[in-house]
Design goal:
72% of the residues lie in helices and 0% in strands. It is mainly alpha-helical and 78 residues long. The protein has one domain.
Length: 78
């Protein structure tokens, strides 16, 4: 995999916190930033996949019944 260099501005407090994490894990700052970006991208891929699946289900008319909704809300209130 090729690697590119990018630069961006970061608040000094965040940089200090980032460096503290890197130090605690005995890793360099680049490693921690790459891990954070990968986690961020994973979350957004997961979210986009679920939105697409929800839209597919809606387009197919696959909706929950009123009783299924009541049961779901009842479980969530507990």
């Amino acid at each position: 995999m090729s690697r590119d260099t990018i630069s961006f501005r970061l608040d000094s407090e965040k940089r200090e916190a980032l460096d503290a994490v890197a130090s605690a894990l005995d890793r360099d700052r680049s490693y921690i930033i790459n891990e954070a970006i990968e986690a961020y991208l994973d979350i957004h891929r997961w979210q986009a996949d679920h939105i697409r699946e929800g839209l597919r289900q809606a387009d197919a008319g696959e909706f929950a019944t009123e009783n299924e909704m009541k049961a779901t809300f009842s479980r969530r209130r507990k």
